[in-house]
């Protein structure tokens, strides 16, 4: 197969429906012997209309396709070009279906004998990439893609991607290729033929290093560093490497952190947004630990920021200063590291489900690459994570190979980076005496969430569904295949009863009938014990037995929490949305560890509220020094416009009309991209539907869904020249809006959390700080450096009326604040 001709196809069309829409551009790039050998490309004139969205994306207009051939004119020629080739496309279903219909309309039956999809191949052989859109793949793999969403450029980029995939296949060891070949037979495209050809025609090496028969990377750790460096030298290397200007505020921050470590102090620091806190933390830590041989633990708010701090900041700093041998590491919780026994269990599943097949193949390739075994590298999403967890629950014990390796590495490292969810775990595993908490304004909320185990109805029902009591190809069916079928009726009856009991438990919790819920949980555990006793020591019982034991552990934890009155119930009118929250005491363990530290630094761009750090009191604030590094001109070039002619949100329809009218006014004057942020999905979806129904805008409207990540949305946003993005505040976390000189964000409400009803003190202690931090973060997306300018349009007049006004308006000057009507809004836009 490897010596075949591969035809890489890309189409541009007027829409997504091959029965209604038309091909407006067709390109084919031919690959043979790992080289591009020729190409074919043409515009097509079958379409009588091209939607504005398509023109925005492709730059193809009706004028461009005038005089071009129709598909019928070229169908025989194209068929002959493709006839004896392996058909390849990026998302093959789209291109192949369009071509099949187009050929059918000309009387030709087109069905290629070999097909490959570079989306699937990329997911398998480049498993750590965050996106498999062609533009992102081209950027990541250094493929040339001059004009995205033009057929020839996309086809050429896809051809180069395919060649990269072939090169990656050649690098894999023989054992891994054989496993991949056996699994790939379940895929609809001809991946198995490709792998068989590679096995037959290439001399794949034997695996260099294996654990339990799986090929993995041999561990590599840093060595001890004897290189000496000062703060001044390391800071100079940093600004020279990045072509930054010397900033005295940033250097002062470095010395403040360094002194706190050196003098065994506890200090809470606010340093304004854009100052460069991450690099300040790292420079101070590197110099301190290099001098003293002491170990420093650094924590940040999220795993994505932890990865950025480690790979994009710490490693680059060390490389630029010849400190590559300084031992540094990352550490996360056990569940973040792949379990080899779980992979072996997954591989044993005889399942042709697409998600499971892809998951197995991705994991096998990734194991040959990963040093850490951190599952975050492979980003298991949705069903993939559920299938992995299902396999994990069926094994009897965890091997913890990669986690133990990570702990050992961290113990021998001078600097270890973690995130707020795992501070307690890190402090219990390591012997660090110094802690730096970045993004410290989020630490208490994170610790609160980490100290709670949440049991949801739908999660427990999903776990039960994986046993498969309805004759599905799940654990129960596999068990019965090896045992007396007469056991079936008994097991189905017991498991059906268990399913019903879970309904009863959450029905009782919804109306707070705690005694009845405890009784139902007792009954559930009795049923599970009965099933466990009946299957133990029968044929192939281990998977079902271990899975049920895992499920029973959850039920026993719920029962214990209810009995000891150690719980909170989140109620809902629908019992299926009721949740039981159990305190696991991890917060108490964390604060115990904190008392044993020699020094702590809490730092954030937003840590003070109304001149106070009181919201940090649970973190022993009375033992902390405090310092603010402020910049009165921080938001000098950011205008804050608050309309005074809009309806109250309680008049929902009129409020939405006002919001859309302001958006329409903005678009008619500026014709720029704009982001609209919401505090909830309900209002977001209502505005989105209003925009669709009204057909007021001839530009793309992107909507955030609950499963969308900020990086995915940002990629879509950056690809378009003009669009409206509707998103929640979570979109602004950990992203930078690049290449925009004038940025505009519409904010529908001040970002207060959902009211808890816990009173006035709770509002000022928790809700207000949370809202202030989120607001400053949103504004911080606009103002990243001195040259940035932009505006926030806030549809919430409470900011002007309430006593917490100054907490939000810190760093704004009065000239930047405009409270006016649509006429004032137009005047503001006209000045830009």
Structural commentary:
By secondary structure, the protein is α/β, with parallel strands linked by helices. The protein folds into five domains: 6-206, Nucleotidyltransferase, domain 5 (2-Layer Sandwich), CATH 3.30.420; 223-336 and 405-451 and 597-613, Rossmann fold, CATH 3.40.50.300; 338-399, no CATH class; 455-583, de novo design (two linked rop proteins), CATH 1.20.1440; 638-831, P-loop containing nucleotide triphosphate hydrolases (Rossmann fold, 3-Layer(aba) Sandwich). It has 32 helices and 24 strands. Strands 10-11-9-12-16-8-17 form a seven-stranded parallel β-sheet, sandwiched between helices. A seven-stranded parallel β-sheet has the order 20-21-19-22-23-18-24, with helices on both faces. A hairpin with an 8-residue loop joins β14 and β15 (579-583). α14 crosses α16 and α20 runs antiparallel to α22 (487-510). The protein is globular. One of its GO terms (biological process) is DNA replication proofreading. GO terms for molecular function: 3'-5' exonuclease activity; ATP binding; DNA binding; DNA-directed DNA polymerase activity; helicase activity; hydrolase activity, acting on acid anhydrides, in phosphorus-containing anhydrides. This is Exonuclease domain-containing protein. It holds the Pfam family Helicase_C_2. Residues 236-497 form the Helicase ATP-binding domain.
Sheet with most strands: 7 strands, parallel
CATH architecture of the largest domain: 2-Layer Sandwich
The percent range for strand residues is 5-15%
Shape: globular
Strand order of the largest sheet: 10-11-9-12-16-8-17
CATH topology-level name of the largest domain: Nucleotidyltransferase, domain 5
Structural class: alpha/beta
Could you give the count of β-strands? 24
Low-confidence stretches: none
Number of domains: 5
Q: Mind telling me the CATH superfamily name of the largest domain?
A: Ribonuclease H-like superfamily/Ribonuclease H
Mind telling me the C-alpha Rg?
A: 30 Å
Assembly type: single chain
The pLDDT mean sits at 87
Put simply, the count of helices is 32
Helix fraction, binned, reads 40-55%
Q: What is the CATH top level name of the largest domain?
A: Alpha Beta
First CA to last CA: what distance?
Answer: 60 Å
